[in-house]
Amino acid sequence: MDVQRKLAILADAAKYDASCASSGTEKRDSRDGKGLGSTAPGMGICHSYAPDGRCISLLKVLLTNACAYDCLYCVNRASSNVPRARFTVGEVVQLTLDFYRRNYIEGLFLSSGIIRSADYTMEQIVEVARRLREDHQFRGYIHLKTIPEADDALIAKAGRYADRLSINIEMPEETSLAQLAPEKNVRAIRRTMGRLRLKLDEATEAKKAPTRTKPPRFAPAGQSTQMIVGADAATDQTILNTSANLYGSYNLKRVYYSAFSPIPDSSRALPLQAPPLVREHRLYQADWLMRFYGFEAGEIIDPAAGMLSLEMDPKLAWALRHRERFPLDVNRASREELLRVPGFGRKAVDRIIDTRRHSAIRSTDLAKLHIPRNKALPFIVLPDHRPPAYQLDGARLAERFRPKAQQLGFGF
Ligand code: SF4
């Protein structure tokens, strides 16, 4: 099979993995004339290589989609009836270099099905990164998917070469993982995440220590994970609880949410339909609220529903359930309170706090702060604006934010 055909199969097989943002790594470049490539920290690029040839920032491929495991939700499982392919280590290295030189990509996202054993697979993945870094002085971004059952020494080696390491937790609940991916072991996944955290903490400490020698590098962009949404019956509340636990216990940079897509010849244990894509989007918004807006996992979702509203964003839904906390005086409220106002982003809040030291914020300033007036005005007080009590308390306020009902078509 030629490399082009392998690429079509293995890039397509990798598309279900959502965890490939390339933000947060250290700054590196080759302007000194040595090496090849650079990283652009903080750009938040996230990307893959589509089989139709379009370039998308990261070359996102599997080493092989011929997997020895049989996770029911995965198109690459051993019992799946899909064309199989396997790259050699040299082929992935060459593809990465070729694509980089042609400016198609800024880095590599490499994952793999299990070949023979966890250790053998991890050895191959690490060898790709080693050759890129040591033999070709590649300085672009490398994200390696880690096999949790692999030997500790291999994972330590992976961290030397990769910018980011990730281990997929896959299911929000242990029981679902046992049912849908019987060969995977949630304890091994968590143990490896714990070890990665220790190594990442050690690397951070070593960087701070006053020494002339450069400390050994270990995955400067940290670790991340991915959860599949909608393959089991877990509620959004369960998913957020699991994410909060993962962020707290392993200091993850990101949890990615990937809406389950029905796969050919799938098991009866799986749903026939994909969850609405907007559910994935709402989970990302809720995740953002936990990480940057001071919300706890347990307060974002209406406890009676257990699910995020698909009709409106989670912060707006929270504010409508907690109207007793509004209206809020923008010129007096604390930063924590302002962050909970619908339509107020973090940057806007920082600018409000900065500006109000010199002059009061008025309704005409909202546009300059990029705050949507319609969303924010019912919840705030300004020198030239106070929402009438009947508006904030009335049932019509929630209606105002619901998407307009649409006449269904007849399908012809
Ligand atoms: S280990 Fe499971 S999820 Fe990963 S490629 Fe194999 S079958 Fe798919």
UniProtKB/TrEMBL annotation:
Classification via InterPro entries: Aldolase_TIM, DNA_rSAM_put, Elp3/MiaA/NifB-like_rSAM, Endo/Exo/Phosphatase_dom_1, rSAM, rSAM_sf, RuvA_2-like
Keyword vocabulary terms for this entry: Iron, Iron-sulfur, Metal-binding, S-adenosyl-L-methionine
Secretion signal span: none
Record domain Elp3/MiaA/NifB-like radical SAM core: where: 57-288
Sample GO molecular function, one term: metal ion binding
Name the record gives this protein: Putative DNA modification/repair radical SAM protein
Keyword Iron: yes
NCBIfam families the UniProt entry points to: rSAM_link_UDG (TIGR03916)
Gene source species: Rhodopseudomonas palustris
Cofactor section: [4Fe-4S] cluster
CDD domains (UniProt xref): Radical_SAM
